[in-house]
């Protein structure tokens, strides 16, 4: 019949690899896809309540926050706008340099806006500390932070992160937007790398 494709034809047409090639370098999953899903729904509901009646501007810090931003924003049930800022703090290494470069600035003027900064992870906190200082100077009506992950006890500066998805041990993690040498951002979970993956790059 025209327009109809038999299931058997579809199955043979789609190449399904037996091993997910993204996962070869992953030692183990730290936070599952389902755990992240549930947490982002919960945070979205909380943010919806907290910002009810206000005009919210979600500000994503590229590149790492792009996955969290996309998923979280769909759980926030009030009108909002989004903007992105790109910063670089690491290069290909796994230790923070403390040097933050703004690679792409915002399109929006922040004056009088309620701004919620979305971060993938707060590690040393140096990137966030720098960003908050910079953004405060633009006189937003409010400025708060939502981070998917926060490493416990290793922040080198005091930071008030209002919404935190998960507190994790101070190990290097990848997935759900987080990279190692620009890879692994598309993993649907947060995982730990195999030690040999660090030395291969
Ligand atoms: P901080 O300045 O040390 O807090 O680091 C901030 C940035 O470093 C994050 O936004 C990430 O892009 C990156 N980063 C920190 N820890 C990790 C990690 O465990 N995996 C991947 N990237 C990380
Ligand atoms: Mg990075």
List keywords for this structure.
globular, binds inosinic acid, 3-stranded antiparallel β-sheet, 25% helix, alpha/beta, single chain, 5 helices, 28% strand, 9 strands, 201 residues
Bound molecules: inosinic acid, magnesium ion
| Rg from Cα | 19 Å
Q: Main sheet, how many strands, which sense, barrel?
A: 6 strands, mixed
Average pLDDT taken over every residue: 89
In terms of structural class, how would the helical and strand content be classed?
A: alpha/beta
* Strand order across the largest sheet: 4-3-2-5-6-7
Counting DSSP E segments of at least 2 residues, the number of strands comes to: 9
Ends distance: 52 Å
Form type: globular
Strand portion, in percent? 25-35%
Percent in helix: 25-40%
The residue ranges in which pLDDT falls below 50 over 5 or more consecutive positions are none
Summarize the helix and strand pattern as letters.
HEHEHEEEHEEEEH
The number of helical segments is 5
Please characterize this protein's 3D structure.
The chain has helices spanning 7-13, 33-51, 66-73, 126-136, 195-200; strands at 26-31, 56-62, 80-88, 101-104, 114-122, 142-151, 163-168, 173-174, 190-193. With 201 residues, it is α/β, with parallel strands linked by helices. Strands 4-3-2-5-6-7 form a 6-stranded mixed sheet, with helices on both faces. The chain has a 3-stranded antiparallel sheet with strand order 1-9-8. α4 (126-136) links the parallel β5 and β6 (142-151). α2 crosses α3. The N and C termini lie far apart (52 Å). The structure holds inosinic acid (IMP) and magnesium ion. Residues 64, 90, 179 line the site of magnesium ion (MG).
């Amino acid at each position: 019949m025209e327009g109809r494709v038999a299931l058997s034809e579809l199955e043979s047409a789609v190449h399904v690899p037996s091993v997910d090639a993204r996962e070869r370098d992953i030692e183990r999953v730290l936070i599952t896809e389902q755990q992240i899903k549930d947490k982002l729904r919960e945070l979205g509901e909380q943010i919806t309540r907290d910002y009810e009646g206000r005009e919210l501007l979600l500000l994503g810090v590229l590149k790492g926050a792009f996955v969290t931003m996309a998923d979280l924003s769909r759980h926030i049930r009030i009108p909002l706008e989004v903007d992105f800022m790109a910063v670089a703090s690491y290069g290909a290494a796994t230790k923070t340099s403390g040097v933050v470069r703004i690679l792409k600035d915002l399109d929006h003027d922040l004056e009088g806006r309620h701004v919620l900064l979305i971060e993938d992870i707060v590690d040393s906190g140096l990137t966030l500390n720098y960003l908050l200082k910079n953004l405060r100077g633009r006189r937003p009506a409010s400025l708060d932070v939502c981070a998917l992950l926060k490493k416990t006890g290793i922040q080198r500066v005091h930071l008030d992160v209002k919404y935190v998805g998960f507190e994790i041990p101070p190990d290097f993690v990848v997935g759900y937007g987080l990279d190692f040498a620009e890879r692994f951002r598309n993993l649907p979970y947060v995982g730990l790398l195999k030690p040999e993956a660090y030395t291969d790059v």
